[in-house]
Amino acid sequence: MGTLGSRQLLLCCALWGLCLASDYDDYSQNSTSEQVSTPEVTPCPRAIPGDQATVNNVTYLLIPEVTRAQLGSAVTVRLIPCLYSLAFLLGLPANALALWVLATRAERLASTVFLMNLATADLLLVSVLPFKISYYFLGNHWPFGEGLCRLTTALFYGNMYCSVLLLTCISVDRYLAVAHPFSSRAFRTPGLAAGTCAAVWLCAAALTLPLTLQQQSYPLLGAGLTLCHDVLPRHEDDGFYFYYFVALISCAFLLPLLLLALSSGAVLRVLLRGGGRYCHAAKLTALVLVSLVVFYAPSNVLLLLHYSSPCSRLHGRLYLSYMVSLALSTFNSCADPFIYYYVSEDFREKVRRRVFKGSKKTTTSLKTSKETLPRSKHSLV
């Protein structure tokens, strides 16, 4: 009897041990599954990332309340549209008048072709600003449809980077005119300049083509707003957009900035050798480089920081700073006419004659650029 009791006790202990082992295995499996199912940090698209929700076959976006409050803040609905409005009021008449005078009164030189294309790019950039102004004044609401949202986004970025590329072409052309005035005459022709400008326009269009191939406007769930480009849904291939914007900034900003800095430095070196009479032209040459860095560097740096950082609550604030810097970058289109055109006394005189018809001498053609820059101390053109 004692032996039977001992055997029963051992059997009970064995069964209890098996139960403990089974419970431990279940706990281990559950712990492992919980670790595997932990959501990974996903990369963010260029805009603020939002989650999708489908209601009655309509795709809506969901964003945190903090982010929504930032998009509806005074910075977004007041400061940014006011900045765009000021850029529009300054840039539209300045570039339109400059293009009109260049097209009707300027001598057809290689530099004139570059300047006309620059004025056109700046004019197209400011011409899309009324849509962005109304969008922000309406509290981040886009009432113009998906097609116009894509077109406005592509034209905005395309013409902005096209201006950067054209500024680089102008700087290189001036380097050739100053450092190699005689040997460069053979290929500094209006025809070759026109071909270069055509290549720049095609390059800018190709670089911004992906913006026209993806949906840009989404309604915001429960807000009665349709956002354009500011909030985009997360995608499985978000890594593509990171590499796309790295390539865009590298090809359309960093590389042109490097070429512009090298060519401007070479021009400054030649001008400073000429003494004090070229001091004014040297200052304007330096101003071109400084304005490009001041207006465009902040937005491009913030764009890379925004996209390369892990998703966090800081992204809304970082993107808000990016939108402000992007609005400030449009003022470069307002500064270009005064740096390149209106600084010239000859150009201002032609503008007065063209606008006020105050002189009978309207048959004299305007030379916006001499064959060698040092011949004029009052103008960079």
TrEMBL record:
Ranges annotated as spanning the membrane: 83-102, 114-138, 158-177, 189-211, 241-272, 284-307, 319-343
CDD domains per record: 7tmA_PAR4 (cd15372)
Record lineage: Eukaryota, Metazoa, Chordata, Craniata, Vertebrata
Signal peptide start-end: 1-21
Function: Receptor for activated thrombin or trypsin coupled to G proteins that stimulate phosphoinositide hydrolysis. May play a role in platelets activation.
Protein name (database record): Proteinase-activated receptor 4
Cell location: Cell membrane
One GO MF term attached to the UniProt entry: protease binding
SUPFAM superfamilies noted in UniProt: Family A G protein-coupled receptor-like
Keywords linked to the UniProt accession: Blood coagulation, Cell membrane, Disulfide bond, G-protein coupled receptor, Glycoprotein, Hemostasis, Membrane, Receptor, Signal, Transducer, Transmembrane, Transmembrane helix
GO terms for cellular component: plasma membrane
PROSITE patterns assigned to the protein according to its UniProt record, in alphabetical order: G_PROTEIN_RECEP_F1_1 (PS00237), G_PROTEIN_RECEP_F1_2 (PS50262)
Domain G-protein coupled receptors family 1 profile residue range list: 94-340
Alphabetical GO biological process terms: phospholipase C-activating G protein-coupled receptor signaling pathway; platelet aggregation; positive regulation of release of sequestered calcium ion into cytosol; positive regulation of Rho protein signal transduction
Source species of the chain: Taeniopygia guttata (Zebra finch)
SS bond list: 149-228
Membrane topology recorded in Swiss-Prot or TrEMBL: Multi-pass membrane protein
InterPro entries reported in the protein's UniProt record: GPCR_Rhodpsn, GPCR_Rhodpsn_7TM, Prot_act_rcpt_4, Protea_act_rcpt
Family assignment from sequence similarity: Belongs to the G-protein coupled receptor 1 family.
